[in-house]
């Protein structure tokens, strides 16, 4: 179960969770999502919250609904790739801002990243 941040709307946190699962491939293109009731139980939230999550994901074309059957991850891999790129750009932007906030220059950030990547390999 997710530990919710009280400062961020719950539906946005669940959306982010599902987007990460789609981006990472843990939810495959065309894969059926759990039912509203199952997800409400899983996240410990009201089914209306899950409905809102699904509506927003559908509005972003990340899922589609088959009436009477359920909700599915989009089969359009371009949509998924675009979402991944947007998520990565946001993470990088947040990281750079945080590093700048504690006094690192862009050059120092790049050096630290290169050092860390080399160390990890």
Automatic annotation (TrEMBL):
Entries under SMART domains matching the protein? HTH_GNTR
PROSITE patterns tied to this protein: HTH_GNTR
User: CDD domains attached here?
Assistant: WHTH_GntR
Q: Which UniProt keywords apply?
A: DNA-binding, Transcription, Transcription regulation
HTH gntR-type domain: which residues? 8-76
Tell me which stretches of the chain form a coiled coil: none
Q: Which Gene3D superfamilies match?
A: Winged helix-like DNA-binding domain superfamily/Winged helix DNA-binding domain
Official protein name in the record: GntR family transcriptional regulator
The organism is Caldicellulosiruptor naganoensis
């Amino acid at each position: 179960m997710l530990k919710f941040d009280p400062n961020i709307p719950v539906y946005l946190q669940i959306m982010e969770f599902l987007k990460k699962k789609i981006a990472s491939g843990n939810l495959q293109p065309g894969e059926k999502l759990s039912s509203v009731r199952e997800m409400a139980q899983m996240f410990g939230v009201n089914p209306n919250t899950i409905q809102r999550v699904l509506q927003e994901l559908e509005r972003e074309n990340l899922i589609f609904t088959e009436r009477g059957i359920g909700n599915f991850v989009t089969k359009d891999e371009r949509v998924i790739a675009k979402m991944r790129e947007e998520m990565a750009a946001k993470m990088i932007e947040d990281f750079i801002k945080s590093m700048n906030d504690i006094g690192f220059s862009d050059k120092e950030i790049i050096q630290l990243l290169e050092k860390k990547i080399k160390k990890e390999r």
